[in-house]
């Protein structure tokens, strides 16, 4: 498995230059490193911020499981979507509100067919709310398909 988390990961992350705002590092509660977050007060309603994970060494015709922690904290905070390169227009995963402020786990299967996926984009869309944040952490890529826990 490949650790792409932000504090000590080996993966390459890039801010999208054509979006409305950047994701920023935020300190974890436990004090061990940081995660990437978009505070609710950044930008205007419907503005987007994209953080791209560049995947360079995925083998063709193989499958991977992308596992990540996410949090949508605050009322009407917005949406978090995940896009894969070869499916640019349709998100492969989307969440628009948290039941509470807790961190949850997202899992996405990545199939490497003839077209290989060379990036994963985490997109935050600003909601109406003024408090809270959208956060992503502990991004890990594992060989094989995701298993249901």
From TrEMBL:
Domain MAM: from-to ranges: 2-148
Record-level GO cellular component terms: membrane
Gene: Egfl6_1
Superkingdom of origin: Eukaryota
Transmembrane parts of this sequence: none
Coiled coil: none
Name of the protein this chain belongs to: EGFL6 protein
Entries under Gene3D superfamilies matching the protein: 2.60.120.200
InterPro entries: ConA-like_dom_sf (IPR013320), MAM_dom (IPR000998), MAM_domain-containing (IPR051560)
Matches recorded under Pfam families: MAM (PF00629)
Native source organism of the sequence: Pluvianellus socialis (Magellanic plover)
């Amino acid at each position: 498995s490949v650790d792409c988390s932000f504090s000590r990961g080996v993966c390459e992350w890039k801010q999208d230059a054509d979006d409305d705002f950047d994701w920023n590092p935020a300190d974890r509660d436990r004090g061990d490193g940081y995660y990437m977050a978009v505070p609710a007060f950044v930008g205007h309603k419907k503005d987007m911020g994209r953080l791209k994970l560049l995947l360079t060494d995925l083998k063709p015709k193989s499958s991977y499981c992308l596992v990540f922690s996410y949090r949508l904290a605050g009322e009407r905070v917005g949406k978090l979507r995940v896009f894969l390169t070869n499916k640019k227009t349709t998100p492969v995963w989307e969440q628009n509100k948290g039941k509470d402020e807790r961190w949850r786990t997202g899992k996405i299967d990545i199939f490497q067919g003839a077209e290989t996926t060379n990036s994963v984009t985490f997109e935050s869309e600003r909601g109406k709310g003024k408090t809270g944040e959208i956060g992503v952490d502990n991004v890990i890529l594992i060989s094989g398909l995701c298993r249901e826990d």
